[in-house]
Amino acid sequence: MATLVTLQNRLQFIESQYYYRNRFVDEYRKKEYEAAVKIQSWFRGCRVRAYIRYLNKMMTIIQKWWRGYMGRKQYRQMVKTAYLTMKMNFYNEMAVRIQKCWRSCKIQKYCFNYYYFKEYLRSISDTNQAIREALEEFVEMQGREKKKADREKEEKRKQHQARKTHYLLSTKQIPGVYNSPFRDPDPMEFELQKVRAFQMTSPVPRIQQTDYEDLSSWLACTSKRAFPRSDILPPINRKQCQGPFRDIAEVLQQRYKPLQPTLRVATSINAVKEAQEELKREEWKNRVNDNVFLPFSNYHKNEKYIPMIHLQPKYNGLSYGQKQFQAEDPEKWISNKNFQTVFPPFVLFDKYGKAYSRAGEIV
Amino acid sequence: MSQRQVLQVFEQYQKARTQFVQMVAELATRPQNIETLQNAGVMSLLRPLLLDVVPTIQQTAALALGRLANYNDDLAEAVVKGDILPQLVYSLAEQNRFYKKAAAFVLRAVGKHSPQLAQAIVDCGALDTLVICLEDFDPGVKEAAAWALGYIARHNGELSQAVVDAGAVPLLVLCIQEPEIALKRIAASALSDISKHSPELAQTVVDAGAIAHLAQMILNLDAKLKRQVLSALSQIAKHSVDLAEMVVEAEIFPVVLTCLKDKDEYVKKNASTLIREIAKHTPELSQLIVNAGGVAAVIDCIGSCKGNIRLPGIMMLGYVAAHSENLAMAVIISKGAPQLAVCLSEESEDHIKAAAAWALGQIGRHTPEHARAVAMTNALPILLSLYMAQDSSEDLQIKSKKAIKNILQKCTYLPALEPFLYDSPPNILKHVVGQFSKVLPHDSKARRLFVTSGGLKKVQELKAEPGSLLQEYINNINNCYPEEIVRYYSPGYSETLLQRVDSYQPLI
């Protein structure tokens, strides 16, 4: 109980205590509250800041790593590029060096070859020299020809003049105008002496130069009319014919080459006969009298003709050269005459199509 | 009246007509009579006589008409207006060769004056009959017909085309091959007239095989024929590379070079024209001419003649030199540059000088070596004086300026450049100073010479706008020398020195 009493005694105290304490608490509640807020806020702030600081730190680490990574990456890239550029520069430099050498070599060899150029210039000046000389010579030749022609013309004129004034020639008795007795004779005087005067009589009848060709002359006939002559130029440009033909030039040459007859053909068939006739004609022309002169004496008058012994039929004559020893069958003959052989041997035609040379020989 | 008396009247009339026509033909040969004849109405009197019964009178009347029409284009027009042409054309086909000759003469005389008159002849259908006349046996008729055709074709391309369409070209080519020199001459001239207008016409002439025959006749002795042949070849060659090559293939070189030595001036001129027309096309053709020694021959030819005969040769050198530097070098070593310089100084006509200036410019524009060769011939001062001269033609001034510029831009031969510092206009001075500024930094001897000859002083006296090209060149030159020397030669240096004397305080 005592306890109770003590307790009860204390109650008062407790109440007051309670009161005070509550009052005290109430009194400081706000302050405490504010303080608590402050403390809390400070603490929380500290905590958040610490957290943020932590985050920042982490962030820095991340960034550091990331940036480091990127940086390294970039650096590697840069190094790579730099290496590449360096390499390329080097290559380019080397390429330039090679190209330089090669180009200079090429240019010096093919474009501006000094020795070639020198040679070229030398050859040009040589050509120029040659052509100048040739032209000079040509002009000189022309001049000479002209001078010669002029001189000839002058000579002719002088001669004509001299012939025209031939009457001025001095005679034995009277000296001419060009032949003064007090001076040396004029050159004209000698000119006059040299030439003949124009004839006052009717002019000498002209010998008619007929371009007559004996048609019986076979060679002349062929050469003038039958074959084209080589001095006509063959056609200038003809296309090659299609087919297995010979070259046109060759054919034309064959076609237009001058005729070269064999010796046998070159003389006509009846040359002997013609010559005899010609001789006869000549004789007839030169003969003064057609009547044959008879011998003056009568000594041979009654002489009898005695033929040779061989020709007499009773001795059978000469058989050699007149008689044929071959068997003959006159029934098979188509003509009574012998053939005349005038053409070249037929060996020629066996080799037909090959080139011929003169006189039918085969090359 | 007896029959004899009746006939006598006719005889008298015929005699009178003959005499009249002959007198008119005679009078028409003298130019002073023409006007009187025209006023007397000779045209209307001659016209009926063309249809006379007597052939002699017809021929003489045609001859008189031809002579009248030959005189001037009014009379030729009167012939056209008088409807005489159809009669002539009709009888050209029918009559004998003397009449044909006379009629072709009238056509030629009418056609030569103007394209209109020639067209009138073509409209009458004269071409066909003239072409038939080309097939005549008589060379005189052929000649007259070829002549008339040539005169018609001469005017313009259409008329030539008409002549070609009438089929004249193959016959003209046959005419060239005839033995008569006069006929050859005129046929060649007609071919030349036909081919001069266009490449197509020239091609037709070539297709007819004219070149081979023309080329054969270059060595002919007759100078007038040579003229025409060379002219025809050059008219063919001038159009295109192909045609020029065809002409060259006829192996005209080196034969044609002999023509450059001919006595006849026009042969020379036409030969150089031919070479020029060939050379102008391509470097290869030029090279061919150079290899044949053509350049030397042309240069000799230029040296041996005067005036207009030279002109094609001069132009030929220019064309050859313009193609490439090797060819220009060939011209130089053939001694072309001195010859051109001679032409430049001794010719009196502006167009020849202009051609020579142009050719020199073409030679000198390639490398310093070329420019040096040209400068050594002393041509530059002449060019400058031509450029500066008041009485030079505009063309000459432009050409010489261009030549000077071309040569100066390559020239490193300082002795030739030096005079230009003193007496040249600013637009040329610029190039001269530029050349000095390029050469001096590399040549110590030249630097010394430049100072002693007074060039540096002159350069300091030049007034250049700051920032201009000239100023830059001057600065380049100044940079080659020590500063004192540059200042020494600057204008007004002595005064600055004196000022320094004035302002100097003596030390004692």
TrEMBL record, chain A:
Pfam families in the cross-refs: IQ
Domain of life: Eukaryota
Family annotation (InterPro entries): IQ_motif_EF-hand-BS (IPR000048), P-loop_NTPase (IPR027417)
Gene that encodes it: SPATA17
Ranges of Basic and acidic residues composition bias in the record: 145-157
PROSITE patterns xref list: IQ
Protein name, as recorded: LOW QUALITY PROTEIN: spermatogenesis-associated protein 17
Region (Disordered): 145-164
From TrEMBL, chain B:
Pfam families per UniProt: Arm
Entry keyword annotation includes Cytoplasm: yes
GO CC term, one of those recorded: axoneme
UniProt key word rRNA processing: no
Major location (coarse): other
Signal peptide feature range: none
Top-rank taxon: Eukaryota
Localization annotation: Cell projection, Cilium, Flagellum; Cytoplasm, Cytoskeleton, Cilium axoneme
InterPro entries in UniProt: ARM-like (IPR011989), ARM-type_fold (IPR016024), Armadillo (IPR000225)
PANTHER family: SPERM-ASSOCIATED ANTIGEN 6, SPERM-ASSOCIATED ANTIGEN 6 ARMADILLO REPEAT-CONTAINING
Described function: Important for structural integrity of the central apparatus in the sperm tail and for flagellar motility.
Annotated protein name in UniProt: Sperm-associated antigen 6
Organism, as annotated: Phascolarctos cinereus
